[in-house]
Design brief:
The protein has 412 residues and is an alpha/beta fold. It has twelve helices and 24 strands. The structure holds uridine-diphosphate-N-acetylglucosamine. Uridine-diphosphate-N-acetylglucosamine binds next to α1, α4 and α5.
């Protein structure tokens, strides 16, 4: 799909953000622990969510998805869905929970954005420590629960978001086992997952800190749960607004989760937050030195977008990617639009302000495509973005929302 974007936009008005993709995906997986009906509200209608729903259906879960709400019932699950290609990385989260539910799980090797090697060693080491026999083939991963220990301590080699969620969800269903996860990721989506699991009857504490304690239980109840707002979607619209010199009210945010606000204020964002609404406008944009880090650090999922903002800021900015080894694909595309960017290792150096011009560019990864869409919206002239549909993996109704706030965009 190609999107045509008319440049020189000034973003204005109001936009509502959806439920967090990165909370919705692990919550959907965790729902299979219960054999009772589960209802989840504020599920964003995204390609990645639809992909997860397809995987759940392949497992035999009865899922209905309407008006951003999911109702599901997980009884009689299949243990082997290795024939089903998993296009999203979050599919790995199914391995432990499914193995516990069915006695054995086999899934295809997880896919996802091409932003580096993205190994799953921390997930698999953790499952082994929890007592699973794990084997990895060319195209599949298999897990069988073998031992049930009384007490398990697992120190994660890196605070991986997915591994923290996977091990926390799996351990929550291991009755008789007390698990302590150390060096956990502290992302708000993990706190949301804990809240959801506990609402189904799990006994977990500590999410949001680096130590999570889990007392395994055997039975889960029915639950009705609403997902938090998507902080990355909010951050993307906030950055786009600042880059365009506009003013925007972003509705539906979860204020405690917005770990990008301080960085945007340093660049010159004037931000006020009241209840679930955030108002943002830009004053003179100043250069910034920023590096991505696990939460509460600056999110890697906003790194490509902030590179575009740095192009408009006065002075020399430095943006360093510290989480993924291959997440600078936007640099090549922004150069096609006239950006002058120096790259040394994982650091981008930008001297601003720079004038960008419209060009034909290519979307490769979700957040990189968000960045080139922002760049196209503020450039002089029109741009064409190939593979624009990648954006539908993480941005709900993005074309409608952009048109509503003053970015003229059409897809063909
Ligand atoms: C999640 C988010 C993604 C975000 C990322 C980092 C979801 C669905 N996706 O992805 O949007 O960009 O967190 O904030 O929530 N690693 C290993 N071995 C492992 C697991 C991870 O080496 O077993 C490495 C990865 O290659 C990467 C780093 O750890 O370099 C962070 O990955 P991780 O936190 O696991 O990211 P995801 O959970 O995949």
């Amino acid at each position: 799909m190609i999107a045509k974007v008319w440049g020189n936009s000034k973003i204005r008005g109001e936009v509502s953000i959806g439920g967090a993709k990165n909370a919705a995906l692990p919550i959907l997986v965790a729902s299979i622990l219960s054999s009772k009906r589960i209802e989840i509200l504020r599920i964003p209608d995204l390609a990645d969510v639809r992909e997860m729903i397809s995987m759940l259906r392949a497992l035999g879960v009865d899922v209905s998805f309407e008006n951003n709400s999911i109702s599901m019932l997980s009884t009689n699950l299949n243990s082997d869905i290795s024939a089903f290609p998993s296009k999203i990385r979050a599919s790995i989260l199914l391995l432990g929970p499914l193995a516990l539910k069915t006695g054995k799980a086999k899934i295809s090797y997880p896919g996802g954005c091409s932003i580096g090697k993205r190994p799953i060693d921390i997930h698999l080491d953790g499952l082994r420590k929890l007592g699973f026999d794990v084997s990895v083939g060319e195209e599949f991963v298999e897990a069988v629960p073998i031992h049930r220990y009384k007490q398990v301590d697992i120190r994660l080699g890196f605070p991986s978001v997915g591994a923290t969620e996977h091990l926390m969800t799996t351990a929550s269903m291991m009755r008789g086992t007390e698990t302590r996860l150390l060096n956990c990721a502290r992302e708000p989506e993990i706190v949301d997952l804990q809240r959801f699991l506990n609402s189904m009857g799990a006994r977990i504490s500590g999410a949001g800190t680096s130590k999570i304690c889990i007392t395994g239980v055997s039975q889960f109840l029915s639950a009705r749960y609403e997902v938090i707002g998507d902080r990355i979607e909010a951050g993307t619209y906030a950055i786009a607004t600042m880059a365009s010199g506009g003013k925007l009210v972003i509705k539906g945010v979860t204020p405690s989760t917005l770990n990008f606000v301080g960085v945007l204020q340093k660049i010159g964002g004037i931000i006020s937050i009241k209840d679930d609404s955030m108002c943002i406008k830009a004053s003179d944009l100043k250069s910034i030195k920023v590096f991505t880090a696990p939460y509460p650090g600056f999110p890697t999922d906003l790194q490509p977008q902030i590179t575009v903002l740095a192009c408009k800021a006065k002075g020399i900015s430095e943006i360093s990617e510290k989480i993924f080894e291959n997440r600078l694909g936007h640099v090549e595309e922004l150069r096609k639009m006239g950006a002058i960017l120096d790259v040394a290792g994982q650091t981008i150096r930008v001297k601003g302000p720079q004038v960008l011009h419209g060009a034909r560019v290519v979307g490769k990864d979700l957040r990189e495509t968000a960045a080139i869409t922002i760049a196209s919206a503020i450039a002089n002239g029109t741009s064409e973005i190939e593979n624009f549909e990648i954006l539908f993996r993480g941005y709900e109704k993005v074309v409608e929302k952009l048109n509503k706030i003053g970015v003229r965009i059409a897809t063909s």
